[in-house]
Specification:
By secondary structure, the chain is of the alpha+beta class. It has six helices and 14 strands.
Length: 251
């Protein structure tokens, strides 16, 4: 019989003081950038394209009583080896009033490979983002090297972008295609939205670029090379979701 649920081990929980320190480090990185500030988006010299959370963490978040939202918050984690600090993401469950009701879960895997699969439409997913749109966002991120990133890509009219708020249903939808969730991850890819915002003067039509996130089901990096064909197909046809709202505003 197939294993349906993963083991609830090594969930990469953050203590509240660790979370506060890492979110503050993110804000300081954007608001007081050093010359090498955006090396946080590099992993062993390659550009960061996404992070992953173990399925056990996602199941725990979605099992939290009264969960209505999954909050994603940006972190900068200090290096333990003397290298550059690292960008990461924390997730926690929130109720209908966006009050935190779970522990903080930190991403445990960093990706430097882009999305390449053509994604099929899921019959279960009514709120998914079209592949062509997701591809435009992730391609835009890939075109900007870390050394060329700018603070205004991580700010909105409300100030420094601290994260995004997802409906819990967005995470639930990513699981509908996973009949066997053992050994699976939920991957959050990094994206860059390019658009022309409303301007006071009609002639001022400069392109705006804003950092974003995209959800999808994923094979863990450690098992991607040895995964069965059926599992690779299931993931390759998994839909994307990007229906989040930025923080701030919000909590």
């Amino acid at each position: 019989m197939s294993t349906i649920l993963p083991s609830m081990t090594d969930l990469h929980l953050l203590a509240p003081e660790e979370y506060r320190s890492a979110t503050l480090a993110w804000v300081q990185t954007i608001e007081q950038p050093a010359p090498t500030a955006y090396t946080v988006f590099e992993v062993n010299g390659s550009q960061l394209t996404g992070v992953s959370f173990p399925m056990a963490a996602i199941i725990s978040l979605l099992s939290t009583v009264r969960v209505h939202y999954i909050e994603a918050r940006f972190l900068v984690i200090p290096s333990k080896t003397g290298g550059n600090d690292q960008f990461s993401i924390a997730l926690y469950a929130a109720d209908v009033n966006r009050v935190r009701i779970s522990a903080y879960f930190q991403a445990y895997s960093w990706w430097t490979t882009p999305i390449t699969e053509v994604i099929d439409v899921s019959a279960m997913a009514t709120d998914q983002a079209p592949y062509a749109l997701v591809n435009a966002w992730t391609d835009a991120w890939a075109r900007v090297l870390p050394k060329d990133l700018k603070s205004d890509m991580f700010t909105t009219s409300f100030g420094t972008l601290e994260g995004y708020t997802f409906k819990a249903d967005d995470f639930l939808q990513t699981l509908f295609d996973a009949r066997d969730m053992s050994g699976m991850d939920v991957r959050i890819d990094l994206a860059l939205h390019e658009y022309y915002p409303a301007m006071v003067e009609a002639k001022n039509t400069s392109l705006q670029q804003t950092f974003g996130l995209v959800l999808r089901l994923s094979i863990p990096q450690t098992t991607a090379s040895s995964s069965t064909e059926s599992r690779i197909v299931a993931v390759a046809t998994s839909p994307f979701f990007d229906l989040s709202t930025p923080c701030p505003p919000g909590t």
